[in-house]
Amino acid sequence: MKNIAILAVILLSLFVAACSNAHGLSDARAQRDFANWRAEYLARAAGQGISVDTIAHAKPFLTFNEKIIRLDQKQPEVTQTFAQYLAATVTPARITRAREEYVNNAPLLHRLEQQYGVPGQVIIALWAKESDFGRIQGNYNILSSLATLAYDGRRQEFFESELTNALRMVDHGIAPDDLTGSWAGAMGQCQFMPSSYLKYAVDGDGDGQADIWSSTPDTLASIANYLHQNGWNAGLPVATQATIPQDFNPEWIQKKLELPASDWQSRGVVQPSGLDPNLMGATTTVVQPDGAGSQAYLAYDNYRVLMRWNRSSYFVLSVATLAGQINP
Questions:
Q1: What are 204-230's pLDDT values in tens digits?
Q2: pLDDT of 274
Q3: DSSP-assigned beta bridge partners for residue 260
Q4: How, if at all, do strands 283-287 and 259-260 pair?
Q5: Which of 118, 240, 268, 292 is 20 to 30 A from 105 via CA?
Q6: Which residues contact 193 (CB under 8 A, 6 or more apart)?
Q7: Cα separations (Å) of 185 from 160, 163, 265, 323?
């Protein structure tokens, strides 16, 4: 029996060693394949105008991070109802903090509203939702994150494009080790992807930099500029609660039918406070975030603007809800 036990230990040790060797070979192969991809990608980036200096400075940060792949593959399924999501994200504590930040930043928000036409309440609500007022920004180097995701290939074209935009940021003077954010490449207090940073990030405090990582004025101004550039209409709400009749055609929702608000009213869509006479001609759609039988909303053009920011009806309606809780 003793000899059998010793033999079992030896066999187990050999098995573990074999697995370790196989894992080591797998890791080595992955690193070698990534190095080949990186060389090919950097050649493409140079062909798109990325400078030699930028490539040299950024190359050490273009590393393979297996943890990024695991995070990408194991994103949690959405199992919450909208009511549950709202309760978890628009909490009394967050509403209180949002009101405080609105007051603390009132002069800046007034200036931004005058400049961009975006209400300060919406700006604060987006800031709260994206980073908990700057508290949670992510600590991954996005050059490594984006390179890993581009190499993985699931959305190669998208992530390569964002990686090239991140290199353009380095070209513009941002140090590679300052490019930190989420594992998926979103950066700073407003969680901009590099393409959004290049298009919409602005200097809100007059120091000549668009610093969305540590400057609150730059962050809030960049949020306002994004919404403005994407068509924010200062005269419209985002969405208002509505009730729909039992014989309401579900295809109107499924096809995202766009009609003047007055037309929806004629089809039996009712808002608790009545339809604002000034909004009768506004283009609207009816949405139900939890599908047939759930709470309905009459969504205006600003709803669609926020959907360009994040294509989740839960996200957009929670931003609108939080904004509505911030009293001027």
A1: 999 999 999 999 999 999 999 999 999
A2: 80
A3: 283
A4: antiparallel
A5: 240
A6: 162, 165, 185, 186, 187
A7: 11, 9, 43, 26
Give CA–CA dist 262/284, Å, rounded: 9
pLDDT in tens, 265-306: 999 999 888 878 889 999 999 999 998 888 999 999 999 999
Residue whose structure tokens are 């994206």? 130
* Phi, psi dihedral angles at 248 (to 5 degrees): -65, 135
pLDDT at 181 over 90: yes
Two tokens, residue 185? 């490449």
Distances (CA, A) of 177 to 12, 89, 136, 173: 44, 31, 18, 12
Instruction: Return the SS3 of 224.
Output: helix
Name residue, tokens 């599908």: 291
State mean pLDDT over 49-78: 90
- Looking at residue 99, its amino acid is R
